[in-house]
Every structure is written in structure tokens, then in C-alpha cells.
Amino acid sequence: MLPNYSTDDVCPSSLNSDSNHFDMMNIAESFSIIDFYKNKTIFITGATGFIGKVLLQQILSKCCSVRKIYLLIRSKRSESCHERLAKMLSTSILFKNLQDKFHLIKAIDGDITAKDLSLSEEDRNRLIEEKIYPVVTDKDVEVYLKQLTEKYADYDLPEGHSALQNRPNPYTLSKAIAEWLVKEKYQSTLPIIVCRPSIVISSYKEPFPGWCDSISGVSGSFILFGLGIGQKFIVDKTKTTDLIPVDLVVNSLIVCGAYRASSHYSPDKNVVHITTSNLNPVSWDRLFNLCIDFERRIPSLKQVRPISIDYSNNYTTVFDKFRYKFHQIINHLLFAAIFDLIFMVMGHKPLMVKIIQRFHKLMFEMKFFSLRQWNFVNNNLPYIYKLVDEKERPLFNCDVTTIDWEDFAASMCHGLRKYLLKDPDSTYEQARLRRHRIHVGFRLFAIFKYFLFYFICKKYLLETILDVTFFYSIPFTIIDLAIYSYLIR
């Protein structure tokens, strides 16, 4: 069984000594990223994912002299690994201008969860010839993972489950297992450097400002917020979050790989945090307010109702949880049901209830991170970045202090609109007009709701049943409307 390790056990002080003395060091010389990757063969897993695509694109764009790039891609029932690669290269905008580099890419059929990566004998021999050594899992860890898979394959592990070993979800557990395995089995035999990005979000500058292809996590939350679908979020807006654009993550991976092979490498710098909280912090409140501002300027054509200004719920007290449940039922599920009913009457497939259900699942998955203050020490990355050849630093920017969060929010909102919601840039005026109509319509509907509430709850209940005159019912009406307005805002 896998030992019940703590976070410090996964990354002990010997590995995680982020020194804060790099400014006082006399850096005699630098190393070149481009020279290091010249004529090198690179093996990448996860290349079909969000970070993997950008990593592949950036290597092809900036490290033009690489010899070969092998991508481990798992075949599906309907698609081989080669078909999946061809589809990715032909459909993703990232590779539109890189056709002349496609001959450098080779797909390898395999599965990172299987023994020996499920490589064929031919592919295994080819990788060995290229001096690339696939990781073979430790027997105890393999047994542990097999037990987890068999026992919990069709089961959503709740927060606090013993199988998660004090971690909030299986995602963070799997990363800890991978890091622990590398530390225990290969630290002394393979040249390893561990890079730990925080919450990875859409790109800041590269390959395109605001590029993203995944409606999940923080990006998905901001999309639902901007469309008016998500009205209440489980988030403490006063807390500092730790978000990192994907292009800075990828640049850091490329730089750290070259640093590990350079003569400048130091063993106390082999765990690198790719984070922003201690060098360039940003709060949830600032991010949401920036998104509110840009929603006014560049709304989406797919917006369905006005966004909520009072968006946060700390989810700590009983009243907080009651308010969130109230919003979940009234402002989310009821709205989604009515929306889907109208859709079905119009002959369309209902979808809003499923979206809302996924939204609430996402909120509970993220609350471990959105309700806490995060401050990660990030001194190793600036140290390594200062060692990079000065001419190459702008090409491989890893400096998180260069992020202007207002500029990033503008890029993110534009990117989510363009790349995920597929709204053309030419539709800005049309979208603003639609937004205005939606706001007017919902304000009129709010007035109708209040009058309906008044006549049903006061005119009928007080005057007909309780025999209270209209004059004496006015104070009750004002109090109840105030409470009702507070609950539904």
C-alpha cells in the first residue's frame, strides 16, 4: 500500500528549499534554451490536453532545431493514436501555421496508467534507441493504484474520504502519487526536475491572447458568470487566489528542462513552483470585478440573463448555506427548468439543467481552493529565469511580475468569447444591443415579480384571510419586500 504521507513527505525540505538569496548571487554566465534543444529528441505525455497542446506548439515555434518529438497518445475504440494526432493538428488553431514542422512529430500508442506505458516492442525499442526511458511503476504503487481503480472506478469520492489521504480530490492525489513515485524510485538515477503550476488558466500573450480550449475549472466558472447562468459562486472574494496563465507555465517547463541539463543546476532547485500569489497576487474580488467591467464592453451573443453583481457566498455559516441552497433552487434550477421547457416547446434539445448541475458540482469541487488564502513561495523560478541568456528571456517569459491582471482579464474575456463561445469579433455591437434588451426585459420582469408578490401575499392573505386593512399591511409589505430582495439578489 502507498504510505500515508503528508504534503511535506511528498516534497521534503531537501527538495523544496526555495532559496530567497538569488538576488545576492553573482551569476557568472547564462545558458541558452535554443542551443540546448537543438538536435534533441523530446518525449511528451499529455500532449492532447490543454497544457500539452500549448507545450507542443511552443516547442515547434521556438525550438525549431529539435530532431524529433514523440507524443504518447492513447488509442480509442474509434480512433488510433495517429488519427487522434492528425485530428488535433488539423483542427486546432494552434498549429495552423506550423504544417512545415509536422514531420518532426511522431505519435506513440500507449497509456500512461498501464505497465511499461503499454508500449509495443517496436515503439519501446525506438525510444530506447533515442535514449528515452519510459518509467516503470513501482510494484507497491501499482498494487495500490489497481486497488483504488477496482474499488472506486464508478464512485465519486467525496471530500474527506480516506482513499484521498487528506487531499480535496483525486486530481490532487494523483499528482502527489506521481511526484512521490518519482522521488522514491528515480531521483538518484534520472535527471529530474519537478514543476508545480497552481491553477492554470487561459493564455496571457501566447500563442494568442486569451486562448483556451477547455470549459472547465476557473475558465468554465467565468464563462457561466459572463453568460448570466451562474449567479452565485462559492468563493471568498477577499482571499488571494493563485492563477497562472498557460503560456507562462509552458515557458517555465521549457526553461526548467534546459536548466536541469545545464552546468548551473543545483539540487536544491529541483522543485519549482510556477505561481503568482507571493510575487503578483490577485484577489477573487478584483478578478470578478474586472470581468464585470469587460462583460459590459464585450458581452457574448449567447448571454441569457444579466450577470449577478452580488456573486459571492462564503459558505461558512448556516445562513450562508441556506442562502446558497435558496439560490440553487430558485435562481439556478428553477430558471434552468423554465429555460429548457421553452427550448423544448421551440423544438430544441434541453441543456440548461445539465449545465446548472455541472456548475454546482464544479462549485463544490472548487470550494477547497476558492475559500482559502493561498500563498506559495516562488523563488526558484526567478532564480532559474535569471540564468537564461538575456536575449532569449523575452522569447521564454517566465516572469510572473510582468502579468498585468487588468490586461489579462481583457485577454481572457475576449478569448473565452472567441475561442470557446465562438462569437466573432464582428458581433460586438450586436451583442451589446442584445445585452441591453436582456437587462431591460429582466428589470421589467423583476417589477412584475414584486407586484405579484405584493398582491398574493398581502392583498389576499392579509385583507381576505386575516382581515388586515390595506393601510396596516403596508409596513409588512415593505419589510417582506426588503427580505425578498435580499434573498434573491
From TrEMBL:
Span of domain Thioester reductase (TE): 44-130, 162-252
GO biological process: long-chain fatty-acyl-CoA metabolic process
Keyword Cell inner membrane listed: no
TM stretches of this protein: 329-348, 440-456, 468-487
One Gene Ontology CC term in the entry: peroxisome
Catalytic activity: a long-chain fatty acyl-CoA + 2 NADPH + 2 H(+) = a long-chain primary fatty alcohol + 2 NADP(+) + CoA
Domain of life: Eukaryota
Known EC number: 1.2.1.84
First-level EC class: oxidoreductase
Protein family per UniProt: Belongs to the fatty acyl-CoA reductase family.
PANTHER family: FATTY ACYL-COA REDUCTASE CG8306-RELATED, MALE STERILITY PROTEIN 2-RELATED
Protein name according to UniProt: Fatty acyl-CoA reductase
Lineage: Eukaryota, Metazoa, Ecdysozoa, Arthropoda, Chelicerata
